[in-house]
Amino acid sequence: MNIETKCVQAGWQPKKGEPRELPIYQSTTFKYDTSEEMGKLFDLEAEGYFYTRLQNPTNDSVAAKICAMEGGVAAMLTSSGQAANFFAVFNICEAGDHLIASSSIYGGTYNLFGTTLKKMGIECTFVDQNLPEEELAKLFKPNTKVVFGETITNPTVSVFDIEKFARLAHSHGVPLIVDNTFATPVNCRPFEFGADIVTHSTTKYMDGHATAVGGCIVDSGNFDWLAHADKYPGLTTPDDSYHGIVYAERFGKAAYITKATSQLMRDLGAIQSPQHAYYLNIGLESLHLRMKKHCENALAVAKYLKNNENVAWVSYPDLEDDKYHELAKKYLPNGSCGVLAFGIKGGREESIKFMDSLKFITIVTHVADARSCILHPASHTHRQMTDEQLIEAGVAPDLIRLSVGIENADDIIADLAQAFEKI
Ligand SMILES: Cc1ncc(COP(=O)(O)O)c(C=O)c1O
Fold it and tell me: Which among 66, 102, 154, 280 is the best mutation to test ligand 1's pocket, defined by most ligand atoms within 8 Å of the CB?
């Protein structure tokens, strides 16, 4: 199946007489006839549902759809994109370990890695993702366990060189995790370029309508944990909390997701509700259509901004003269996403006046849904970061993030034009 068909058809496969539409299994618990049957589930000796904190059929159907779209072997939904990135890393890192992450990532992930993981004894080195391979190679340590980046970075809309980082990670015996939220599998499938694990904030384009916070982790099944057994004891040595199961031996290519489900979800409980998974599935059914329109509109808006005398600079990888256009042609040949960044001449005061003058393009924290919206990261999402951290993350203090929706492009441009007249 091509990606458009997967958006619509993958996941829920009803059998004879079952509902055509994905049912919401609004149940915390599942019935068994004997205690032996139930016991086998707890020993991971039999497959089946027993408690929604670990697994639920609605969630699993939607995870299976995203898994098919990304071309992975196993996937799980989480309560948010934050939970997805936390689980993705914490599943293979513990106190005393180290990870390498691009510094140009979403502010929430930056805080998670730089502050919260640090409190748990996991150290993160943030890197300029444009550094040459030889420079980046020097940052690996014996305790480095994973490398992390975003396909298209939020909010700087830079393109991550997946193949470069996959080569680096693999030559140091560690996997590459790519947050594919902005590109979505419609525009880029990181596994095709060597990424090992993909994460999503499904809250964004996948849901697409700003209705449900959620996340997803997909495993390619390609990383050989047993070949690097000393680095990943959580997957390659017995788990005492499951009667000594060795995940990599028992579950093969599904080991990573099985461990994340049966251990992290069991203990930390960041599940997506089946109701949210249902909304997400409806969003996924039109993702291919929306992404096309987001990209068309964003390119029209980017070209308009580029020729506007009030605008100091524009970043959008689909523009031919953009710094990331070559990488975009390779990784995102059908278009990148609907998000672009630009700066207004003058500075903070003009930026705020401009944003406050917009009519239907609204100021919201959210990004990447059907409605056009705008944000000034230095005042909002990234306000915890110091000026130095902002600059390191490539977030200029004048950066405005515009998430171009699926309205009519002329109307979006008209709204921007009338706001420019106010400054
Ligand atoms: C690229 C990226 N990853 C992760 C997240 C976190 O996702 P959530 O808000 O669903 O927790 C976001 C949120 O904006 C994001 O943009």
Answer: 154
d(CA 398, CA 342): 8
Return d(Cα 93, Cα 148) in angstroms, integer: 13
Encode pLDDT of 251-295 as tens digits.
999 999 999 999 999 999 999 999 999 999 999 999 999 999 999
Give dist(CA 189, CA 75) in Å, integer.
14
* Ligand 1: nearest atom to the Cα of 202: 10
Per-residue model confidence as pLDDT tens digits over 48-102: 999 999 999 999 999 999 999 999 999 999 999 999 999 999 999 999 999 999 9
Q: Looking at this protein, which amino acid is placed at residue 301?
A: V
Let me know: does 22 contact 275? Beta carbons within 8 Å: no
Q: How far apart are CA 214 and CA 272, in angstroms?
A: 6
Atom number, ligand 1, closest to the C-alpha of residue 153: 1
Q: How far is the CA of 130 from the centre of ligand 1 (A)?
A: 22
Q: Which helix (H) or strand (E) holds 123?
A: strand 123-127
Nearest to 152 by CA among 8, 336, 277, 276: 336
Beta bridge partners, 100, equal 125, 147
280 phi/psi in degrees, rounded to 5? -60, -40
Look over the chain and give the mean of its residue pLDDT values, rounded to a whole number. Answer: 95
Backbone angles phi, psi at 340, to 5 degrees: -140, 165
Residue of the nearest CA to atom 15 in ligand 1?
106
155 and 375 Cβ atoms separated by less than 8 Å = yes
Residue 351 · residue 400 · CB < 8 Å:
yes
153 Cα to the center of ligand 1, angstroms: 11
Say how many Å lie between the CA of residue 48 and the centre of ligand 1: 31
**CA of residue 180 to ligand 1 center, whole Å:** 10
Q: Could you give the CA distance from residue 317 to residue 332 in angstroms, rounded to a whole number? A: 9
Over residues 340-386, the pLDDT tens digits come to 999 999 877 888 899 999 999 999 988 999 999 999 887 777 777 77
| Neighbouring residues of 322: CB distance < 8 A, sequence distance ≥ 6 | 315, 316, 328
d(CA 409, CA 204): 20
